[in-house]
Structure to design on (342 residues):
DNA sequence: CGCAGATGATTAACATGTTAAGTTTCTGCC
DNA sequence: GGCAGAAACTTAACATGTTAATCATCTGCG
């Protein structure tokens, strides 16, 4: 065990330890980050075995659920910023996992869809992924998991976050 | 609402829409990500005004809570990976916000502490930060927030995540 | 003592997050 | 018709996430 060190003073400005802040243990962003990381640590190895990152997987899943979708709409659904999405789409297209063309009525818009190759990849990854999710739900409790989901959604709403991760509300 | 597009089929492999996966709306990592992002969107502008990123702020807070601390222990407390921490420490040290020296008994170990300049910066940032947190707690409900914290902690435990964001358990 | 293996920390390399700036195409209005 | 401003991406630039490799130091053991 690593006995949590906190040696006697020597450096600077430590006499006034009274920093006007609550401890990390009460930091909401930290708690959310830790929980999410604990969950993702379960999924990442499986995705990695198939050459996918978490974000690439989100995109493929989103594309698999619709026929076609525009870039901006995909960014909203997969909760990714535009720049990240642009880079990832370039890569996924090069790997033949997605299809892309230009909207004939509005040449600014890109229209995306998953390829059959992408579909096959999803079919390979999904079973393990679902099994992992089931394991988490089992250990934590399905009922409790649903309650957590609900509380997270309410937190988002109470803060006013139905926007993409970017979209600052001052526009 | 922006009418969710899902045009009629035309691309490939969309006849077999039966992808064996639950919808995004039931994705736990996604829910945690969205909630965290909604929260962080409140804090980021304030931090940015003071030239700090979220991670730099986490480090300063962690350092302010102790006299001295080792790099590895700081990584655990601030929930950062080694490589990220190395880069950030280099920057914070160059900006004079932290102090660093080598452990005399074990020259591999680095010993960190916050500088008085770093202390002053915290004193500048903390009030707004606390106010934002109070606003969130007020809107969401203090009681409910505590319950959420508890459930997040339990989720971590049930998955077995008392490790740093790295530390795969195969070592 | 001296060396193999463990440990603490950094560096490398690539992917994404984040903000700002740039490009192309549309839309509204004169 | 044509031009200003908006909209949809994309690029750029820098910070962090993530994994693997490297470097220095320490520890255990012969």
């Amino acid at each position: 065990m690593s006995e949590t060190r906190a040696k006697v003073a020597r450096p600077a400005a430590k006499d006034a330890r009274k920093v006007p802040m609550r401890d990390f243990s009460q930091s909401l962003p930290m708690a959310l980050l830790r929980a999410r990381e604990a969950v993702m640590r379960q999924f990442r190895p499986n995705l990695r075995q198939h050459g996918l990152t978490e974000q690439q997987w989100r995109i493929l899943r989103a594309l698999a659920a619709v026929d076609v979708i525009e870039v901006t709409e995909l960014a909203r659904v997969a909760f990714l910023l535009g720049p990240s999405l642009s880079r990832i789409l370039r890569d996924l297209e090069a790997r033949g996992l997605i299809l892309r063309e230009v909207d004939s009525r509005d040449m600014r818009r890109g229209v995306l869809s998953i390829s059959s190759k992408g579909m096959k990849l999803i079919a390979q990854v999904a079973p393990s992924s679902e099994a992992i999710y089931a394991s988490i739900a089992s250990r934590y409790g399905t009922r409790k998991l649903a309650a957590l989901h609900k509380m997270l959604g309410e937190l988002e709403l109470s803060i006013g976050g139905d926007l993409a991760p970017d979209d600052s509300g001052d526009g």
